Amino acid sequence: MAQLEEARWRLVKGLLDEFPELAKRATEYLQAREKEGKGCSKQSKGLKKAVITISLVKESGQVANEAIERAILEELSKGLPRVPWLQKVEGITVKET
Questions:
Q1: DSSP classification of residue 77
Q2: What is the pTM of this model?
Q3: Do 80 and 23 touch, CB atoms closer than 8 A?
Q4: What local confidence, expressed as pLDDT, does residue 42 receive?
Q5: pLDDT tens digit sequence for 29-78
């Protein structure tokens, strides 16, 4: 089952990489639905939050914290997020809200 999910993810990611405008429009649609209170998180029961701890690359020491925070937030707000400055994921904790 995990292989099937991974294959689906690779297919979706490949399509969105190939058609960035589609990814942008899908993200804008989902954000608008969230603002209207019709997003998935409003309808979900037992919401959870994940706290992800990461190490940043050495070069991040030469950049202001606020600039790194903005860059990470901006990148995570896109269709298929990635974390700039990421060196290694240290751990993930999931909590009930």
A1: T
A2: 0.45
A3: yes
A4: 47
A5: 877 877 777 665 545 567 888 888 889 999 999 999 999 988 888 888 87
- Per the listing, tokens 């998180």 go with 41
- Taking the C-alpha atoms of residue 12 and residue 72, their distance in angstroms, rounded to an integer, is 22
Q: Is the distance from CB of 90 to CB of 54 less than 8 angstroms?
A: yes
Check if the beta carbon of residue 82 is closer than 8 Å to that of residue 16.
no
Count of CB atoms situated within 10 Å of the CB of 35: 9
- E strands, 16-85, where? 48-56
Please state, in angstroms and rounded to a whole number, the distance separating the CA atoms of residues 44 and 47.
6
> What's the confidence (pLDDT) of residue 29?
80
**Measured CA distances, 26 to 12, 41, 52, 69, 84 (Å):** 12, 16, 25, 24, 22
